[in-house]
Amino acid sequence: MTPVLELRDLQTSFEMPEGTVHALRELSLSVSRGEILGLVGESGSGKSLTGFSINRLISPPGRVTKGEVRLHGRDILPLPDSEMRKLRGRKIAMIFQDPMMTLNPVLRIETQIRDVLLAHEKLSKSEVRARALAALDEVGIPAPEERLRVYPHQLSGGMRQRVAIAIALLHKPDLVIADEPTTALDVTIQGQILALVQRLCRDRGTALIWISHDLAVVAGLADRIAVMYAGRIVEEGPIDDILDAPAHPYTRGLIDSVPVPGQRGGRLRQIPGRMPALTDLPTGCAFAPRCARATENCAEVPQLMPFGEDRKVRCVHPLAAGEAA
Amino acid sequence: MSDPVLSVRGLGRRFGSEGDFVARGLRKLGLAPPASVVQAVEDVSFDLYPGEVLGVVGESGCGKSTLGRMVAGLLEPTSGTVTRPDAEGRALPMQMIFQDPFSSLNPRKRVKALIGEAPRVHRLTSPSEVEAYVADMMDRCGIDPSYATRFPHAFSGGQRQRVGIARALAVKPEILVCDEAVSALDVSIQAQIVNLFMDLRDELGLTYLFISHDLGIIEHISDRVLVMYLGRAVETGPVDRIFDAPAHPYTRALIDGVPRLDRRRAIYSPIKGDIPSPVDPPPGCAFHPRCPLATEICRVERPVLRDMGDGRQAACHHAESQI
């Protein structure tokens, strides 16, 4: 079966005064129908940029300089803009971190839902209203008739994010890219949104890319996980394998940085240093300066190599199962 | 137990006002809408003992930041008191670490001025030694002292937070109020800063009021925990009691709702509903519209914080049935 989305050797670059900066490099991954892929990394790792690159939303001085974005096996990068516009919102939808930024503050919820519906479908007034009500109802918004008339600022953060999700799912897209959609929400509200997204994607078989800095959120949601560092995927595979026995020292470090429930006090095992700026990447493995296992073999950028079954890792000194970094 | 370094009694803070006499008169005649007064914090009491970390946890709008600002002396309480029984000898006994290391440092001042100004003004160091003093503070907080002449923009988020911590430590406080001090940082940097806080506690005997919405961090760093909901303390006690056997249904919902690394493909069964507006809190127990245990009494009578007998207090009519 062809995956819903397949990225092949994607490269996104920015033309800066100080030279070309490659923000994404050698990015290859795929998501199948009904699968949830967690894309994890720290700020500046390129995880959000991956979402924008897939949707062709990179604006100058940035552009996708290499590779393919295949939707159902067809490369969408060479498509003219008019064709691309037909895919956005209909086949590929996005959900962002801050719904206050993605919803128009001066339009009623109903208007915003109508605009998205009419962008891809011919519908009568009553059909639009019925679809809008159904969409709000589906994401668990109480009293949807009243909510259609309100403006975004009249809703709470959790409700706004529900509206954003409802809008993203209006055309039953094949692929949803969710970029930190619960980061701005409170714990109890985050739980509600996670439950909602989980249910909708599982029921409809939507492929989902969940971009997050929070490993724990991804652990509870994803089937597969890809870890990014300084613009490259450093490790990828089934969630259980990777979280139980990470092979890349960076993944190990990330997991160890999260406080373990039940283990109070004591020191967290921290990763020394910080992620290098993309303008100032070390030659070779970008993680080597922070890595306890680095040797002279790390002076060359390692390839993403198969590791065990169904896994890949970009490291010349991968960790054995259970080994500390 | 030794004496507390800080005692908070019945602390409350109201925002908004009744307006002048014209507004009050109009309201009396029914010609103006009722005044919107928000009781951001109400009747919070606790003691802070030397060298301990008291974690304050709650969701947005629960009043935890307002509480922190009142304790740090940045905001006048409208009721209650903050007392320091042993306030002698320290110039500035309390310092605050803020969430956003980008807006809490003056962008036009060099790091050495940011850190060095307060100790110089308060005569904690002489003008001739201020440079060495700043270098020592930077070193202690893990910043290379050779960066003392740089401006804040030259630092990453984690480094800036270290500058903020060095600035707070420079006046030799005994209490640090940390308001979401690690929330804006990346995971690997978060661990570094949490470790720094713990090292400083061991070295300097600091006492912390650590405010966060992140239960993982709170569980890791705290000795005791205060859980807040809509301006009130709903549960307080030793960290292991709170996390192992929460007595308040809200505390339980918070702990159960937290994603964890070992919960894979979890089925989330979140508590329903939104956090009510603090402008118009529900009558009785503020949590009752979302509470799975709510009964008639919860709708009518507000539960008070009761002793549960294991060093913990909970404000719930049904607390016993939870443990």
Give the SSE map:
The complex is a heterodimer of chains A (about 325) and B (about 325).
Chain A (H helix, E strand, L loop, with lengths): L4 E12 L2 E13 L4 E5 L6 H8 L7 E10 L2 E2 L5 H7 L4 E4 L3 H4 L6 H12 L4 H14 L5 H6 L7 H12 L6 E5 L7 H18 L2 E6 L2 H7 L2 E6 L2 E7 H6 L4 H9 L47 E2 L5 E2 L12
Parallel strand pairs in A: 3-8, 3-9, 6-7, 7-8
Antiparallel strand pairs in A: 1-2, 1-4, 4-5, 9-10, 10-12, 11-12
Helix pairs in contact in A: 7-8
Chain B lengths: L5 E10 L5 H8 L9 E11 L4 E5 L6 H8 L7 E5 L10 E4 L13 H11 L8 H11 L16 H13 L5 E5 L7 H18 L2 E6 L2 H7 L2 E6 L2 E7 H6 L4 H9 L38 H5 L5 E2 L5 E2 L4 H4 L1
CATH level-3 fold name of chain A: Rossmann fold
Give helix % range of chain A: 25-40%
Strand order of the largest sheet of chain A: 6-7-8-3-9-10-12-11
Q: Under the CATH scheme, which architecture of chain A would be assigned?
A: 3-Layer(aba) Sandwich
Q: In total, how many domains does the architecture of chain B comprise?
A: 1
| Order of helical and strand elements of chain A | EEEHEEHEHHHHHEHEHEEHHEE
Number of strands of chain A: 12
CATH homologous superfamily placement of chain B:
P-loop containing nucleotide triphosphate hydrolases
Which pair of chains has the greatest number of interface residues, and how are they split between the two chains?
A-B, 50 and 48 residues
Arrangement of strands in the largest sheet of chain B = 5-6-7-3-8-9-11-10
Gross morphology of chain B is globular
Report on the biggest sheet of chain B: 8 strands, mixed
SS content category of chain B: alpha/beta
**Rg measurement of chain B, Å:** 22 Å
Report how far apart the termini of chain B are: 26 Å
Protein name (chain B): ATP-binding cassette domain-containing protein
Membrane topology (chain B): Peripheral membrane protein
Family (chain B): Belongs to the ABC transporter superfamily.
Subcellular location (chain B): Cell inner membrane
